[in-house]
Write a structure and sequence with these properties.
Length: about 140
């Protein structure tokens, strides 16, 4: 287990698991939220996302958490282990609100700086629909 991909619904616990696995396995964890979002919630363009992810997967070992369907094929092909966190939508929605309270007004550690924690309808809808529409 040297190249680990963690995927699943929003707020399923991917980043938390990545941090724990990183310590246990002594492998660097990369959070795609931190790498692909720019300050003020600006998303990195898709061609640049592919460059970033291709550079990550060339490394000897890694743990990468995040979905980002546009680069999923690159990560799946390079991973030796894939962990799919299949958590209840109720748990994930609860985690959204818990995280909002924990990081209110600040950026969480696995997110780009200057992206203060927030909730929006589209994100909640995405989580709610994940079990039926977004599972791989």
């Amino acid at each position: 287990m040297k190249r680990v991909l963690l995927i699943g619904s929003g707020d399923a616990g991917k980043s938390t698991l990545a941090r724990k696995m990183s310590k246990q396995l002594n492998i660097t964890a990369f959070h795609l939220d931190k790498l692909l979002w720019k300050p003020n919630w600006q998303m990195t363009p898709k061609p640049e996302q592919a460059i970033i992810v291709n550079n990550l997967v060339r490394q000897d070992s890694w743990i990468i958490d995040g979905n980002y369907k546009g680069t999923l094929d690159i990560r799946v092909a390079a991973a030796d282990t894939i962990v799919f966190l299949d958590r209840s939508r109720f748990v994930c929605i609860y985690q959204v609100f818990k995280r909002l309270l924990q990081y209110r007004g600040t950026s969480r550690p696995d997110m780009q700086d200057d992206c203060p924690e927030k909730i929006d309808w589209d994100f909640l809808k995405w989580i709610w629909q994940f079990p039926n529409k977004k599972k791989l």
